[in-house]
Design a protein that fits this description.
This protein is α+β, with helices and mostly antiparallel strands and 148 residues long. Helix content is 46%, strand content 14%. The chain binds FE2/S2 (inorganic) cluster. FE2/S2 (inorganic) cluster (FES) binds next to helix 5. FE2/S2 (inorganic) cluster binds next to helix 5.
């Protein structure tokens, strides 16, 4: 089934928006700009409305995810303990921008507001495993080991 066929298998009503997004996410691992345009056209709603909903639907990704998913905590404790430095180090070392996937598809760099492990800040999750009391040096080293 093509993405267009999936979209058009739903009722032409606003209630279909969320389930369409979920199904495309499950099938492709992300929802493209083209998908959003096609959904807007089919449901006869402005693309802007979909973009607003996407801010709340954290499960929906707007680009293909990398082989390795890195999530750096940007909650208050982790920020205080240097999570921005960690993000910058990952960006510089692996050619990836926060919220995006590197061109080689190796790494997606995301952030989160809190892992509820604030006492062990800063926290970084790599491929589902949480690392605590991180430094930019040890996270870069761990990532190099995981990726290469
Ligand atoms: S602020 Fe980072 S785990 Fe809570």
């Amino acid at each position: 089934m093509t993405n267009k066929e999936i979209i058009e298998s739903y009722n032409k009503s606003k209630e279909s928006l969320s389930p369409i997004l979920d199904e495309l996410q499950d099938m492709n691992g992300f929802v493209s700009k083209n998908d959003i345009a096609q959904i807007a056209e089919y449901l006869e709603i402005p693309e802007k409305e979909i973009i607003i909903l996407l801010k709340y639907k954290k499960n929906i990704k707007l680009e293909k995810q990398g082989e390795n998913i890195v999530i750096v905590c940007k909650g208050p404790n982790c920020l205080k303990k240097g999570s921005i430095d960690i993000i910058k180090a990952i960006e510089n070392e692996f050619g990836v921008k926060e919220g995006h996937t590197s061109k080689d598809g190796k790494i997606t760099l995301d952030t989160k507001n809190c892992f509820k492990k604030c006492g062990f800040a800063p926290n970084v999750e790599i491929n589902g495993k949480l690392y605590s009391n991180c430094t930019k040096e040890n996270i870069v080293k761990i990532l190099k080991d995981v990726i290469y």
